[in-house]
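We were asked to recover a plausible sequence for a given structure. The inputs and outputs are reproduced exactly as logged, with field labels preserved.

PROBLEM: sequence recovery
POSITIONS: 497
GIVEN STRUCTURE:
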């Protein structure tokens, strides 16, 4: 099996993983708009805000990144009994994360980061929230929640952003819970030296954190112009400073260097160009989330790191605080989109797409003999939004609609052909004569049919509109229909060139 094939195979196992994420949770908000020059009240830029988004931040974003890959994620952390805490809890749930370990502390202000941006530049970030250590009773509740959940997850991932949650006692408790359950402890922390006494299995410092772990000014000066070489040269010092069995140092445009206490260190070069720092929010969270999830799913270490680096690259290319889905990884790695047969599973994926601000497009059909008309209409449908979902009638449904001599191609073959079309995000099979149940479940923004229909012919149109969606009819390709193709085949007619 080639490395690329091995990495793509790991994608199919991500859904089998489960990660317990513990750490500083926060609400991330972004306000964007065009610049309007300098204020008359002082030498500060004025932004006319036209867009505002909210997203899980910190450990909450890491948990959302795990869930976006299709894995099971449970989040343990603290929020206040305030508007930001309520909003953050709802956002995390919308991403498919189990919030049973998220503790609400009366009187505590939820951590939040609010940013204002225009023209590709970040102008201001305002931080609010309570960064004091939790009281003894709350800390004991956190520890109990971690111990109770550790055994049900493949790894414990601790996110320490130096925001007040992590006392030495809680650090010891999370390590003890992971050890008692026989699970690896992965740590993403601003100051990894605080975690060295508990001997993590894996730590992920970024470039700035790696520089601070180096032993002296000479090493840091060398790091400023040769990051990869310095990390390799100071392997023993970095492993000692972190107390970890393995270090995955992310070095921005220089890629990732992996150090272990049992094998030769190695370097994975970066795949793409660097982008402004404003666009990298969440990239580190996504890297460590993907690395941990792939590791839980049985990926080889090198393949897990490659998946993590690819996922981080997807987030770097996005704006705001983002995550990377398994579909995004497949697209970046050149693999086909998944065939999602379980509607409930698809509903979870759609919820994550919608939480990320993506426009959902749905269409359906038998797709018995795929022809140029189908390809043109599916391509047009994919251009109406960000995520195209195709509903496919099962074999019994095709027989009811088209007659006892159909389908010509069984469901398995019809799905295989649809998977090969790059514009399709998800495929789902349904058993009824209409996709009404799917429409109620998925609530697409746009329902699309080919131009051989009119809206009056579509029994689903009133339902779509009632659900808040719109109905679109795309252009019809003349003289292209499955019935026509089948008829010509049976008559032995050769199409004109």
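RECOVERED SEQUENCE:
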């Amino acid at each position: 099996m080639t490395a690329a094939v091995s990495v793509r195979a790991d994608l199919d196992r991500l859904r089998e993983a489960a990660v317990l994420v513990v750490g500083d949770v926060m609400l991330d908000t972004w306000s964007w708009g065009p610049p309007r020059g300098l204020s008359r009240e002082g030498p500060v830029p004025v932004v006319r805000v036209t867009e505002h988004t909210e997203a899980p931040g910190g450990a909450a974003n890491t948990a959302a990144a795990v869930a976006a890959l299709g894995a099971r994620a449970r989040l343990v952390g603290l929020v206040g009994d305030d508007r930001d805490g309520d909003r953050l809890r709802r956002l995390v749930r919308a991403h498919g994360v189990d919030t049973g370990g998220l503790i609400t502390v009366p009187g505590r202000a939820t951590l939040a980061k609010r940013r204002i941006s225009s023209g590709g530049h970040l102008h201001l970030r305002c931080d609010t929230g309570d960064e004091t250590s939790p009281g003894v009773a709350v800390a004991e509740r956190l520890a109990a929640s971690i111990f109770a959940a550790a055994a049900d997850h493949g790894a414990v991932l601790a996110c320490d952003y130096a925001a007040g949650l992590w006392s030495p006692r809680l650090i010891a408790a999370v390590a003890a819970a992971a050890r008692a359950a026989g699970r690896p402890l992965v740590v993403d922390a601003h100051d990894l030296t605080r975690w060295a006494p508990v001997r993590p299995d894996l730590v992920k410092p970024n470039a700035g954190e790696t520089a601070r772990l180096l032993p002296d000014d000479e090493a840091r000066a060398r790091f400023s112009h040769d990051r990869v070489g310095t990390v390799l040269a100071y392997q023993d010092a970095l492993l000692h400073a972190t107390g970890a069995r393995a270090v995955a140092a992310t070095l921005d445009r220089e890629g990732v260097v992996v150090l272990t206490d049992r094998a030769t260190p190695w370097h994975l070069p970066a795949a793409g160009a660097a982008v402004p720092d404003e666009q990298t929010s969440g990239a580190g969270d996504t890297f460590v989330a993907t690395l941990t999830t792939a590791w839980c799913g049985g990926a080889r270490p090198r393949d897990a790191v490659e998946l993590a680096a690819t996922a981080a690259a997807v987030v770097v290319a996005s704006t705001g605080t983002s995550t990377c889905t398994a579909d995004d990884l497949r697209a970046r790695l050149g693999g086909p989109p998944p065939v999602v047969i379980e509607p409930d599973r698809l509903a979870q994926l759609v919820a994550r797409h919608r939480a990320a601000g993506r426009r959902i497009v749905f269409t359906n059909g038998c797709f018995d003999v795929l022809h140029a008309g189908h390809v043109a209409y599916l391509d047009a449908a994919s251009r109406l939004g960000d995520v195209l979902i195709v509903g496919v009638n099962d074999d019994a449904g095709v027989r009811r609609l088209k007659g006892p001599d159909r389908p010509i191609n069984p469901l398995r073959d019809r799905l295989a052909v649809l998977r090969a079309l790059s514009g399709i995000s998800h495929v789902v099979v349904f058993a009824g004569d209409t996709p009404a149940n799917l429409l109620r479940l998925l609530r697409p923004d746009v329902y699309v049919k080919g131009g051989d229909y009119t809206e009056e012919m579509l029994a689903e149109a009133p339902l779509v509109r009632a659900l808040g969606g719109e109905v679109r009819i795309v252009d019809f390709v003349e003289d292209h229909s499955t019935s026509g193709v089948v008829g010509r085949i049976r008559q032995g007619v050769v199409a004109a060139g």
